[in-house]
Design brief:
The chain is an alpha+beta fold. Helix content is 39%, strand content 19%. The longest helix is centred in the last third of the chain and has 16 residues.
Amino acid sequence: MPFEYGKINWDDIRLFLAVAKAGGLTAAVPETGLSAPTLNRRITAFENALAVRLFMREADLAVRNVLPTQQGLARCRIGRVDFAIYASSGYLAAHPEAQTPEQVMTCDWVVPTPVAATGASTRWLFQNLERPASVTCDTPHALIEAVCNGAGQCVLPCFVGEAEARLQRCSDAIEGLGHTQWLVSHDVSRKERPTKRVADALYDVFARDLALFVL
């Protein structure tokens, strides 16, 4: 049965990436803010939309943001991910400076705690903000909800920020934070039909929604 693009929920792709990166449903709970049963239901819905089982050979397929160099791995470039600053429309209406360079000096900021820090984007915040954060959050889900409810601004991957209807972008892509995403599989299993089918479906989905990743 062919997968149906119209039934794909973009947030389910975000959850799939979190589960794939963490190595399982339970391991992805802290990052997503969702319970393992809820994650299982969302992944199942995503699998049904794609008409494939995404985690039937979980160890044979992964999405990485660093080019793998290990022997025995095949990789396919699936696109670039940019990052930008986002806030709610209500916050922007009350703080017009949020869309100017003064934002790092005068605006409220919502940032991850050290436990939830996510690499380059967190380092950018620490290096560029000229005032303490107004809110800190332990999970990406909590951070997004805080910003959507007007607590301040945050830095998000563009495919997350652009897909959230409650947020508006406040900046161009932040220089130095973008990176390439790679679809990685084992040389031995990458030509097997189940693995190839999943890889092809994911590549098609990412290619179709490329505008959400890159500004």
